[in-house]
Structure formats: C-alpha cells, structure tokens
Specification:
mainly alpha; 2 domains; about 70% helix
Length: about 500
C-alpha cells in the first residue's frame, strides 16, 4: 500500500485515526526520513520505500481498493494505510483452532446436505423426457453448476477480503461495491450461460456426430435463463450472509464460500431441470418463445455493462475477469462430457447421484482455503511480494505443516473429508429409502476418490494463489474459478474410475 508524497496528506484525519495514533505517526522518524518517496508496509509492519513506477500503473488487483476518493469520506491515504495494515487485528476476528473448526463445520455440513439433495434430484430428473431426448443437458449440468459456483464464490471471496481489510466501513462505499459486483455478476452469468450452451453443443456434436438446431436453441434458452435467475437469487443471499457475518464477528472467509454453495447447487439444478422441461414443451407448438427468451437476456447485457463500469472496482474486472471463468467453464464442460458418457453406460449409471456431492464438497473446501490465503496476502504483503518460503520451489509439505493459521486450516479441511463424505454417503442411501447400505468397497472407493481430490486441490490452491499474487493478479478473482473447475474434472474422473473398478470386480456397490 502506498503513502502519498505530499506532507499535507500525511496528516491522518481525526475521524479515522485517534489522537494518540496521530502523535505516534507524526513522531515516527521512518515516515519523515522517507517523505520524498512512496512508502509501504512490509511483512514485518515496517515502512520501506517502493518503486515509484508502480504508482500510476493500472493494477489488476485493485478491485477491492477503496471506491470513493478521500474527499468523499474524509480519510487520508496514511489513515487508510494504517487501517488496512491494522485490519488483521480489527477486521479479522482472532481465531483459535476450535473457533475455526466450528465456523467451517456448520457451513460445510449445510453445503454437503445441499449437494446430497442435488444428487438425489439429478437421479430423479434424469428420467424426464427432456433429459432422455436431449442428452447434451448432462454436459450442461457440471458447466452450469460450476459456473454458478465460480461466480458466487469469487463474489464471496472478494467481499470477504474487502470486509477483512476494512474496505466496507463506509455505508456508501459498501453499497457501491455491492451494486457494482452484482451487476458484473449478472453480466458474467448471461455471457457464460450462452457460452456453456455452445460448449455443450460442440461437445455433443463431436460425440454424437449430429446436433438438431432445435436442441441448440433449447440448450441456449435453458442455460442462460438458469444462470441469470440463479445468479440473481444467490447473489442477494450471499451479500446478506457476508454483512451478517461481519456484524456477528465471524470471519466471512470461513462462512461465505461454503454458504454460497450450500443449497446453490440444489436451487440451480432445480431451475435447470424445470426450465428445460418447460421449454421442451414449447418446442413444437410455440418455438418462438425460446427465441424471445434468448433475446430478452441478451438485450439486458448493455444495462449490466453500464452499471458495473461506473464503479472502479468492477470496471477493472470488465476487462480482466473473463479469462478465469471462461477457462473454468471449458474445464467443467469436459467433466460434463465424462459424466454424460458415464451415465450412458448402464454399468456406471449409479454415478449420477454421487457426482454433485464429490464435486461440490471438493470445490467448497478448496474455496475456503483459497479465500483465506488471499485475505492473508492482502493484509500482510504488497502485490508481487510473497513470503520467503514461497520464493523457492513448491513443496506440498508447506501446505499442511507449519504453525500458521492457513496451515491449520488446510489440516482441518483435509481431516473433514473422510467423516464428512462418510456422513453424506450414508445420507444419500437414507434419502433413497434406507433399505440398503453402500458396500464396503463402494465406501472405500468413494472416500479414497474424495481424499485424493481434496488433497490435490489444496496443494494446487496453495501454489496457485501465491503464484497469482506474485504476478500481481488478485487471487479472489482468478484462483477460485480454476480450482472449482479442476475439482469438477478431478471429482468426475476419479469417481468414474472408482465405479469402473467396482464394476470390473463385480461389486455393484448397492447403488
């Protein structure tokens, strides 16, 4: 963070910093000694000169910077620097292992129940006419669910970081940030919904060798409508969760990202199934309805562009925020193709119940860790600056072994996998009637696939977030889409492999 050169701006406003703090910084020799050049706080809390060439360059990590000029809310740059540096003590509640476990556990269980319900729902709707007639919808399922999760979790991670770094204290500042992010999210949902349907069309055509045009139109209408409505509903819920967490003194990083996906998959999948069946009923009698639906959402795109571009925070993401979510959508679509092929094989049909569970839980856990690491970097380091132990070659042991809070959270998240997925596995069978239980081999195979998936994702997250920060890219916007998409691909691939192994040894798994 940068302290301006002018002496006038070095006097902190009394409304932001108390008199004792003002005296401390007036008498601090390090400030006066470096008054001719910009300053920043290093990882030890000391002030050191920084390169002035960075001062006016556009930065991709600034979407959580203050949205209003100093004059609008009476904060000098030095007081903002002090506030942001002290945010770890004031914005982020102190965490013990017990409090961390409790804060993570409740949203984790809620998210698990949501993904279990989504799996049961998918098992039911796979027999609907539209799913039987237009099998490319199975390719669309992981893409739309993953896209929804990416948008929700990046929103949650950005707002959580803004809360923890003290950048949502002003009411006007807070609502400008919220409105800008929601408008941006609706724009991204519309565009990605369209791209996801086109990706499903291309993959379906490559797999089957044909694709009727009416199927393409239905896929577009279903994908865009589902993405738009689900994004709007869950975006409002997410804002309420983060504001509520702040008021209750709970770290939003532990709560927001899993709550974003708690029943999000269920809501999104229900919308996808109902809208696709509804549009399917129109294809013969009222085909023009599908074209009107697509046209309506496309006409709203300029509105979202105008609203989001008026806010500096989201204006940057209009240019830089597309690469990760589009790439993630492509990766998730490949996972959807694997799911489509697995479902079409009668020997692997039971996989469809478990796919949303393993994909959703893996994405939720790694999103918590990614958000926590990102917040820590925002609080303690300047963009481009990383801890000393992250400057050498990556070692997976650094992810789990250490005394830091993020090491403890990685251990907790990994330890939650086995008991959590065990509970969810048996919950699935209870919700399906409870007359049979999964075989020991199915249980071992499912838990092993989940453990390998989450272990891999946590290691990738640790490496990816620090690499993005070193390249001056904001991890809140870049890392989560890649990680959740990789979670979808890894989860679906490992689960398909597990079921293939069970089938090869003659164990049906009681599915």
């Amino acid at each position: 963070m940068v302290v301006p050169e002018s002496q006038d701006n070095q006097q902190p406003s009394s409304s932001s910093v108390g008199s004792s703090t003002s005296q401390q910084y007036r008498s601090n020799p390090s400030v006066s000694q470096h008054s001719e050049s910009p300053q920043h706080f290093n990882s030890n809390g000391n002030i050191s000169p920084v390169n002035t060439s960075l001062r006016y360059e556009p930065q991709e990590y600034t979407e959580t910077d203050f949205l209003l000029p100093n004059q609008l809310y009476g904060r000098s740059s030095l007081s903002r620097s002090v506030t942001a540096k002290d945010a770890q003590g004031s914005g982020t509640p102190p965490e013990t292992v017990c409090s961390m476990v409790l804060q993570i556990l409740v949203p984790f269980l809620l998210a698990g129940l949501g993904t279990v319900s989504a799996g049961i729902l998918l098992d039911v709707v796979q027999n609907w006419d539209v799913f039987q007639e237009i099998t490319e919808i199975f390719i669309l399922v992981p893409a739309v669910l993953g896209m929804k999760g990416n948008l929700e979790m990046t929103l949650a991670s950005r707002l959580s970081t803004a809360v923890n770094t003290g950048k949502m204290e002003s009411s006007r500042e807070k609502w400008m940030l919220i409105v800008g992010n929601l408008a941006l999210k609706q724009l991204q949902a519309t565009v990605l919904g369209l791209l996801a349907s086109l990706m499903a069309t291309v993959l379906g055509w490559m797999a089957e060798g044909k694709m009727p045009f009416n199927h393409v139109v239905l896929l577009c209408s279903t994908s865009v409508s589902t993405a738009f409505v689900a994004s709007l509903l869950q975006g409002i819920i997410m804002v309420a969760v983060i504001i509520g967490s702040k008021r209750m003194g709970i770290n939003p990083d532990n709560v927001a990202t899993p709550m974003a996906a708690s029943f999000g998959d269920l809501i999104t999948l229900a919308l996808l199934a109902c809208l696709s069946q509804w549009f399917y009923s129109f294809t013969d009698l009222y085909p023009h309805v599908l074209y009107l639906v697509d046209l309506l959402f496309l006409c709203l795109i300029p509105l979202w562009v105008v609203v989001s571009s008026k806010h500096p925070a989201t204006h940057i993401l209009l240019r830089t925020g597309w690469e990760p979510i589009i790439t993630a959508m492509v990766i998730s679509s490949i996972g959807g193709l694997i799911l489509d092929k697995s479902v079409s094989d009668p020997n692997l049909a039971g996989i469809i119940v478990y796919a949303p569970v393993i994909n959703g839980i893996g994405g939720n856990l790694v999103s918590i860790q990614s958000s926590r690491i990102s917040t820590n970097l925002h609080l303690k380091f300047s963009p481009g600056e990383v801890p000393e132990d992250r400057k050498s070659c990556y070692n997976p042991c650094r992810t789990f072994f250490g005394s830091g809070a993020n090491h403890r959270s990685a251990q907790i998240l990994l330890l939650l996998v086995i008991p959590g997925q065990f509970i969810f596995l048996y919950t699935i069978h209870l919700m399906k009637g409870g007359h049979t239980f999964p075989s020991p081999l199915l249980t071992v195979a499912f838990l092993s696939a989940s453990l390998i998936q989450v272990f891999s994702l946590l290691c990738i997250a640790d490496c990816m977030v620090h690499c993005l920060w070193r390249r001056r890219k904001d991890p809140d916007s870049y890392s989560i889409p890649y990680l959740t998409a990789l979670g979808d691909l890894l989860g679906t691939a490992l689960l398909s492999l597990a079921f293939l192994m069970l089938w090869s040894i003659g164990d049906s798994g009681n599915v």
